[in-house]
């Protein structure tokens, strides 16, 4: 497509919903996104222990540092690193080259080891935490650079309002269970009272249009019902919502959207803050993550081949086991990648080793690369963003260095 | 229309209007709530610590007996289970009832602020049994005292020790640590510095965290409540923030003196006053407000009523309303109050009703009670709450709640009760034009005017 045409389309689309709804534009909209690839970002909240997930069993020091945590089973990956047994069902993906890892990466965040600041920085994609850190997320800034991207191009899934998608570019967030039972007239009146308040207008609009569009909540129910029945309805939908809050539910919903116009989806999986009895504590989160990846793999069908999933966390954990069979907040960590679009079956990264002198502050895995570099190259290879765009806008201050070439 | 003092104080510093409450006339009327006794706990509170532990223990023992195959205890177990579940339901109910009381809005908002500042997400059997006590005995008696008193009480309460893994932290060179081959857990030490006192921007280092973790060893909890286990405490003195504490033998008082010192630290003063300003006044409060409050905090060694007073004395506390939105708990409480539902209406409902009327709706609106996202508590910014799904939750709850409680109300009167001069022409028009009462009442409660503060 020539540039003037692309520019024209971008302008048309900037008009928003009315333009997108026109039958003339809709099919072209699709093509006007320069890429058919998909990016899914899963934020692993609580600091996933990369050394337990992708464990350097090949280094004898490792079991000395972690006598308790290396007792249980691991699945060998490449003779040096091994996969935590709680993620064992992912081995077929590894063997098919659809699962990979990057070791010893981190955001530029150092030293204070606060989850909340660490996550903010990870989602903002910035090098330094300042007052602007919560203004916009890196996926939002990336979207603004992709010609033809529109509101439905990106979804955040679940109840959270994720910083990673926040910003000037309009994006959609949706939790599968939401529903509204106002009469059509009541809805119009509601629109009217929300009109002058942008925050309520945007949330109210999306809540109602999506409820209609997505037919995700097929709960009947009438507000004429007596209180008891109404509440029983709510109870029912709560139960389905709890199920949907499970990672596989979120992944199912994300897959449905990704099979259509959506190119980016993001959600988070918590429960990685394993200070205590990590052998048990890491189980739930790992199982959730495993279920999410397998659900995406199973539900995306042919689209899986065009999909790259990146699982990112705010920082790693201490190399040594702590006093209660867990690990404390650390620095360098691991990133998990999956999807048919990646060249998996490989542990990427520049492994610094575990000698005391090689550790960060003698306690943490030394980060040898900025994880934003990997996310940046994903944006480059999947969506054709230039290195200059990534270094200036998506991840300001990142040094993209050489392409690690982890995409097919 | 000009917003009155009564309206601003009800929305910004209270739980909104109720048809039976007398208006607050001045700042002193708000402060007087904190000078008086804790009327909320006097009327609505659960058992004391030892009784809670006894209830939990009885239940646990019967369960174990049953597990071993002794079926004869079945009826007793049923009773013990009911007692235990009842306690948990009551804790939730009391939280709402206290907040719904007339004449206590400011005190109750302050109490909720501290519950969130010192977030405990109950963990395990004991954690759930103790949660209500943490609020009633651990926090509330100290919210009108000095920040140091409150800090010591919150940080050393069994609920906190369990939640942030302190009970699992052992001095690596202590007798118990050596015997069990167990060592430090940094969790509580880090959060004390990062969240409870100095804030993440504070002038502390990883080494301070580590030293504090060593200093905190010994804080423990047994079936009788909080205790200090010398045999878990790391021997020797620790240096935190440049000052040396403790030595042998280790004592709980060493920990207390650190907590009282850090409670007066300038970084703590700034962090706490900023949080108060953000919670009550604006997501982006004026610097002069924080400076004023910080000054008072430092001049009074963290005397909390003086700090609250400093907030209320500052002009920016009385700016036009609308800079913040109500969190789901505040939204529910203020809706109930506006509808004329009283704390007495919640006395002795069956537990199932507590679940349906109080617990599930909060979950639905994005604020599941007892399950904050982490030790940092709930987010403050409006954008975190007014999301499509959060708003859908509010709307749905409004529909069912007004169906239950609002059948007798005329929406055109209700808008006056709930919003007074805050209701604009558009809202009045919309409410008058609703096709049913329930929808009219819902429009009032779901309006930006009611949800902002």
Give a description of the structure:
- The complex is a heterodimer of chains A (408) and B (453).
- By secondary structure, chain A is an alpha/beta fold.
- Helices cover 39% and strands 13% of the residues of chain A.
- Chain A contains 15 helices and 12 strands.
- In chain A, the strands form 2 sheets. In chain A, strands 1, 5, 6, 7, 8, 9, 10, 11 and 12 form a 9-stranded mixed beta sheet that branches.
- In chain A, a hairpin with a 5-residue loop joins strand 3 and strand 4.
- In chain A, helix 9 packs antiparallel against helix 10 (198-214), helix 12 runs parallel beside helix 13 (278-300) and helix 14 crosses helix 15.
- The relative contact order of chain A is 0.20.
- Chain B is mostly helical.
- Chain B has 3 domains: 19-263, no CATH class; 266-313, no CATH class; 328-451, no CATH class.
- Helices cover 59% and strands 4% of the residues of chain B.
- Chain B has 24 helices and 4 strands.
- In chain B, the strands form 2 sheets. Chain B has a two-stranded antiparallel ribbon with strand order 1-2. Chain B has a two-stranded antiparallel sheet with strand order 3-4.
- In chain B, helix 4 packs antiparallel against helix 5 and helix 4 (49-67) runs antiparallel to helix 7.
- The model of chain B has no long low-confidence stretch (mean pLDDT 93).
- The interface between A and B is large, with 62 and 65 residues.
Taking strands numbered 1, 2, ... along the chain, how are they ordered across the largest sheet of chain B?
1-2
How confident overall, as mean pLDDT of chain A?
81
> What would the CATH topology of chain A be?
Alkaline Phosphatase, subunit A
- Relative strand content of chain B: under 5%
